[in-house]
């Protein structure tokens, strides 16, 4: 069943998403060569707490960190620890928060300092693919229209979309229907309706599409160990233009800040 949110629920989603995007923005500003991934996770935990929110990831199916930090060939769900970030690394940073019972989900890939041209192109294509997908998140379209827009842009640039992980509906639960693949297959595809809130999240590999999971049980890496990028927004479907909820669209001053 696909949940359609009413006005009150949409307002709550806006606030949760505003916090997620505020935190992600701050985390991106914190990333610099020399910090450890654990430093970044702790920074995220502190920023989430400032807004009186909670990490939506910590404890989810036993996930042990406050956010996901996936470096270079790591695709998603990377765990933090003693690893020190080096100049030229690219970091996929994924923040999910719960506020007043609703979840905001937001991710972005950034270089530490700067990265090589190939990696920067990967980042740019993945971000562009996200916005191509979002532009199709309009009532009357189908999920497949989002998937197709993403896949077409990525493959036109000689890169590949990950198959094993997909975007999703989001609201009171982190993973609601529908699933939003970043590729098209023959299966039936739900129609989009106003009031759906969707996490659209292309995961793009510079090399081949294949991925595997490391022995830690979480970290997804590319099989060919070439770099991967990940961008994600939580989006409200409307009859007209979609609203990107994770874009700091609620003024921070309107959010309750504790301490
Ligand atoms: N943005 C990811 C997702 O939507 C984050 C989940 S990480 C997990 O699936 F640890 F919570 F699983
Ligand atoms: Co997500």
Counting helices, strands and paired strands, the structural category is alpha+beta
- Which class in CATH terms? Alpha Beta
Say what the CATH topology is: Creatine Amidinohydrolase
What is the average per-residue confidence, as pLDDT, rounded to a whole number?
96
Helical content, roughly?
Answer: 25-40%
From the structure above, extract its key features.
15 strands; single chain; Creatine Amidinohydrolase; 5-stranded antiparallel beta sheet; binds 2-amino-4-trifluoromethylsulfanyl-butyric acid; 4-stranded antiparallel beta sheet; binds cobalt (II) ion
Please give a structural write-up.
This protein is 27% helix and 24% strand. It has 259 residues and is of the alpha+beta class. The chain has one domain (7-244): Creatinase/methionine aminopeptidase superfamily (Creatine Amidinohydrolase, Alpha-Beta Complex). Strand 11 (211-213) and strand 12 form a beta hairpin. Helix 3 runs antiparallel to helix 4 (143-156). Cobalt (II) ion (CO) binds at residues 105, 168, 199, 201, 232.
Give a short synopsis of this structure.
The chain has one domain: Creatine Amidinohydrolase.
Topology:
Elements: H1 7-30, H2 37-50, E1 54-55, E2 68-71, E3 74-76, E4 90-99, E5 102-111, H3 117-135, H4 143-156, E6 160-161, E7 167-169, E8 176-180, E9 197-200, E10 203-205, E11 211-213, E12 220-222, E13 228-230, E14 233-236, E15 243-244
The structure holds 2-amino-4-trifluoromethylsulfanyl-butyric acid and cobalt (II) ion.
């Amino acid at each position: 069943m696909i949940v359609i949110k009413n006005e009150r629920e949409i307002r709550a989603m806006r606030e949760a998403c505003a916090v997620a995007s505020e935190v992600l923005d701050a985390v991106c500003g914190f990333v610099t060569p020399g910090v450890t991934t654990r430093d970044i996770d702790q920074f995220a935990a502190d920023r989430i707490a400032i807004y009186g929110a909670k990490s939506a990831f910590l404890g989810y199916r036993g996930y042990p960190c406050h956010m996901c930090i996936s470096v270079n060939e790591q695709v998603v769900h990377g765990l933090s620890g003693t690893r020190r970030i080096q100049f030229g690394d690219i970091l996929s940073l994924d923040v999910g928060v719960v506020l007043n019972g609703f979840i905001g989900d937001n991710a972005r890939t950034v270089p530490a300092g700067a990265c090589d041209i190939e990696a920067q192109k990967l980042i740019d294509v993945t971000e562009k693919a996200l916005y191509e997908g979002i532009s199709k998140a309009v009532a009357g379209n189908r999920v497949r229209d989002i998937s197709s827009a993403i896949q077409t842009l990525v493959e036109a640039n000689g890169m590949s979309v990950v198959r094993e992980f997909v975007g999703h509906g989001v609201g009171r639960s982190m993973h609601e229907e529908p699933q939003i693949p970043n590729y098209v297959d023959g299966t039936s595809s739900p129609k989009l309706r106003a009031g759906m809130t969707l996490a659209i999240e292309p995961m793009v590999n510079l090399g081949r599409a294949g991925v595997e999971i490391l022995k830690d049980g979480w970290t997804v890496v590319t099989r060919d160990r070439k770099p991967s990028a990940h961008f994600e927004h939580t989006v409200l479907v409307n009859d007209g233009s979609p609203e990107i909820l994770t874009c700091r669209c609620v003024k921070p001053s309107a959010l309750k800040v504790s301490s």
